[in-house]
Fold this sequence. Notes:
By secondary structure, the chain is α+β, with helices and mostly antiparallel strands.
Amino acid sequence: MILTVMKKVILLLVLAGTVMLTGCDAFRSLAGKPTSSEITVKRAYIDSLNNAHQARIDSLRRVEKALADSLAVLDSLKQNGGTILNPSAMGGLFTTRLDYRYYVVIGAFTQRSYAERLLVKARDAGYIATLISFRNGFNAVGLSQTDHLEKAYAALRKIEQEPFCPKDVWILVNE
């Protein structure tokens, strides 16, 4: 009887020592359950998936905001009687290669010399001006080149205050 009790005590001490030295992972692996290191790896993987998902959501929110801002600008242009034209509406571009999507056009002339005079006035006022030639024979003067409609609209409002600016200023969309 003392022998069986001793055997039980020794077995319990061995079992307790095994648990203390190896932790629960030994029993978890014997039971077919994931160990703490496997759980840590799975948590890291899930965190990386969550981070990637959040990055996609943030990207979509930025695009959504940009679209909302563009629509607000278009509404403002419509309310203020502004105009946005595509080069194809004027017969397409002739020789000019445009590097930006939006240009504030302050004048379009059939005689190139008139466009060049306005170009000089705009440059003298501190603007970077571009001469834009169309297939229909018009030569336009474009200012405030940008790839963002909001910036083009803000530039249009500023340019309208300039003394050289006519009343029929508009935004060219280079697509």
